[in-house]
Amino acid sequence: MARISLDPPRTAFFRLMEWYSKRTYGKVLDPGKALAHQPRVLWSYLRFEQSLARWKRLDPTLKSLAEMATAASIGCSWCMDFGYWESVSRGVAREKVEAVPQWRESEVYTPLERDVLEYAEAVTATPPTVDDELAARLLDRLGEPAFVELTMMISVENLRSRTNAALGLTSQGFKETCAVPQQHTTATTATGGTPT
After folding, report:
1. What's the whole-model pTM score?
2. 3-state SS class at 18
3. What is the pLDDT of residues 55-74, one digit of tens each?
4. Are 60 and 75 in contact (CB under 8 A)?
5. Less crowded by CB within 10 Å, the N or C end of the chain?
6. Apex CA 171: angle with CA 161 and CA 20, to 5°?
7. What are the helix (H) ranges across 12-76?
């Protein structure tokens, strides 16, 4: 249960954010509702997210996997739920998204994707546990611009996941509304649900 009301004051700014969120995502995102209690925080956060959307040096699949691994490490169910929907919308294979919490046991990832998942966990650890060998492999495969973007996206997902988890925000049902064909698999869902 959320630790803050998800019914903020209905300012003109909140109503505009509400309209955009419904149009873009089909519902008003709970983090937006929570942050709307402090309009300057919400405004700054939305501008920040708009800037992030312009970063294009890192492959979108690698970016999605890094964000999901970070959210899984922190245990943010809201970010895992929304991240599943967003990743599948970006074209990331469903089996890769679902296997993120158990990526070490899964056979669906390339060596580069495994390094990205490991790096996301290492950056997210407190304190970070990144080793030189892993960083060197990623730098060699990605190049410096994409490596910097990867590192920052993991840090940004730490901000998102830690904020949402601290505010008590939980799954909003995005995974269930994701338009993906049913496949026969015994994998556990990314949000820790029942096998699909």
Report:
1. 0.87
2. helix
3. 999 999 999 999 999 999 99
4. no
5. N
6. 80
7. 12-25, 30-35, 39-52, 60-74
